[in-house]
Amino acid sequence: MRRFGERYVQGAPYRDRPGAYGIIGDGAGRILLAHSTGKDGGWLLPGGGVDPGEGPVAALHREVMEETGWRIAPRRRLTVYQRYVFMPDYGWWARKVCHIYLARAVLPLRDPTEPDHTPIWLSADEAARRLTVGAEAHALRTLIRSGVSF
């Protein structure tokens, strides 16, 4: 499994934290990002942690709804990668195992419930340039090169 981000910190008490994230297209070539203004903010693929008893696809639906207000239709899992990070909101170290899915936007249902997240539609190239997390940008650039339509 490919690793992105910070280096592994020897002796840190890492907890596994699975996550699910979406490269979500609108059918017209645009990609949905979540722009977060929180302390760990930036331009992000919508998604987040998989809760206990929840699978990655269910987590993807829930997280996308919370961060963007959109209902989606996942098409397929694209890749899995890992990141070692300190999560200040939780006060612990995590080995994040991140599943990235290709999905289609279906319907906007409501405003985001995450107070510091704003959904933004961008061209695929612009989204790849703005993404804050290197692994997310890498996955999107790889998909663009493959010729997949969004």
TrEMBL record:
Swiss-Prot/TrEMBL keywords: Hydrolase
GO molecular function, one term: 8-oxo-7,8-dihydrodeoxyguanosine triphosphate pyrophosphatase activity
GO biological process, one term: AMP biosynthetic process
Cofactor annotation: Mg(2+)
Gene3D superfamilies found in the cross-reference section: Nucleoside Triphosphate Pyrophosphohydrolase (3.90.79.10)
Annotated EC: 3.6.1.55
Residues covered by the Nudix hydrolase domain: 13-144
Pfam families named among the record's database cross-references: NUDIX
UniProt family annotation: Belongs to the Nudix hydrolase family.
Cross-referenced PANTHER family: BIS(5'-NUCLEOSYL)-TETRAPHOSPHATASE [ASYMMETRICAL] (PTHR21340:SF0), DIADENOSINE 5,5-P1,P4-TETRAPHOSPHATE PYROPHOSPHOHYDROLASE MUTT (PTHR21340)
Protein name: 8-oxo-dGTP diphosphatase
Biological classification of the source: Bacteria, Pseudomonadati, Pseudomonadota, Alphaproteobacteria, Rhodobacterales
